[in-house]
Design brief:
The complex is a heterodimer of chains A (about 290) and B (about 325). Chain A has 12 helices and 7 strands. Chain A is α/β, with parallel strands linked by helices and about 290 residues long. The chains are: A alpha/beta (about 290), B alpha/beta (about 325).
Chain lengths: ~290, ~325
Amino acid sequence: MGETGCGKSVTAHSVMGLIPVPPGRIVGGTVTFGKHGNLLDLKEEEMQKLRGKEMSMIFQDPMSSLNPVFTAGFQVEEAIVTHDRHISKKDLLSRVVGLFKKVNISDPEKSVHSYPHMLSGGMKQRVMIAMGLSCGPKLIIADEPTTALDVSIQAQILTLLKKLQKEEGSSVLLISHDLGVIAAMAKNVAVMYAGSIVEYAPVSDLFQQPMHPYTKGLLGAIPRLDRDIERLAVIPGTLPNLFDLPEGCKFRERCSEALEICASVRPRLIEIEPGHEVACHACARDR
Amino acid sequence: MHVLEIDNLVKHFPRGGLFGGEKNPVRAVDGVSLALGRGETLGIVGESGSGKSTVGLLSLGLIPKTSGTILFMGKPVDEFEGKELILFRRKAQIVFQNPFASLNPRMIIRDIIGRVLEIHDIVPKSQIAGKVGALLQEVGLRGDQASRYPHEFSGGQRQRIAVARALASGPEFIILDEPTSALDVSVQAQILNLLGDLQQARGHAYIFISHNLAVIRHVSHRVAVMYLGKLMETAPKEAIFSRPVHPYTRALLASVPKPFVTDEDIESKVIAGDIPSPTNPPSGCRFHTRCSFCIGVCEEAEPAWREVAPKHFVACHRAEEWI
């Protein structure tokens, strides 16, 4: 969870090896993925085998992530054939129809032959999800999967993702700026700010007792559907320039709880309560 | 007197076929009646294709209506000409969703806002720069930023500039068309607070158009819920959020994932089906194809628009059962 420019999408793209090099460069750290070890050490061909099969991605905008000149069914078939060259044409079609059924696309036998423009936004996102599921991945990265959708369609897609996760047993890395979506979907939440995780906690802890001043600020800034708020709390200032980050804590200049040490030492994530990690000098001192 | 009175407003967008011939028009707005009081904020909420933005454009006379009436201070908006039209433009302003598209990238801020002052002759030419500075300060920017170009500002700052431009002519009402949808949560809070402060200081009215129900609750005095070009329900804010009547309003409120409510059972609250196309809307009640309370009459007859509680209007055949 995080606002524009916090690095949540870049994190996901790095995991998938989708950062264009150049200009991008991964300068440190590791991405450990089950038995495959550190993904950053894998060759491009080896990554290619994992992408789509072991890990897949659902993007924000289903309008632009499907190719308009191919049928929805063909695009899902393509994902399957890439990892299973010997599948017969008949099996392929029945597998796609099965996937379309699984994601509740209306009239699946007909819809596989539909072009993207013939499908609604919600249906297109279902095609994307079918594509993501096509090879039974262990990890699904969903990057703002409902941001482009209407409220009533969003609820359908979120329900579908939850149901499929239960059935398939895949892990989901959900990226969102919508605190409501996070609350409904997540088990654990990482809050990002200016490129780092500032708080990591089980979802109920995060909303019941947020610790990092940024998280507290965000929770105070959202209008509530269940009650009236006289005036929204405001986080003063703006995001620091990522080209020229300040020394010490990146949130210091906007923080009401800043200490002297915050100006010089960048705080590390510390487990303050079981399972609840925060990168904040003030939080660490108070405990 | 109401600032704005809309009665039975209809807007159909004709669609020509590629090889000639007429297709069904898009029924963007299909019989909407609304009134906006002085200094009031009317929230219009709806999903895509509900016609909420079209109502905004029609109220400003920016697109011609198909039928119905739109009165500004008791006078029909589409009959304004010459001086009267200019005066109306001065009193009716708009802030668009995307501040990256609504500010001319080749003009500095002083000219973007100064042009409004010049066209409407608000202050003498010599005082334009000073007035722009004052307006910028009013929206929380610095006067000396007037000589910069839009690209030098962040999204939130640009939206402040768009607000300053709307304020420049001293409007009676401002249409806010999804003014914070392109902004981050923390920036949204700043803009919503600013809009509230400005209304308190200047007393103008807002029509606040949004798909975000929580934002609508926060800003509105009264709320109108639209679906496929029709009004489903209008009521004072307290009523719409604590005693919603129309099944669509109730389902919409239930299906928003709520922060602070973790592990919510969203499955039971989902509105089934897709939003039908406004070119071929369902017969009878437009929501009947997705409504879990649909009965025979809903498919045939359009429900009457009626007052079920003081100032609480609903278009639903079964409204009385749920009051």
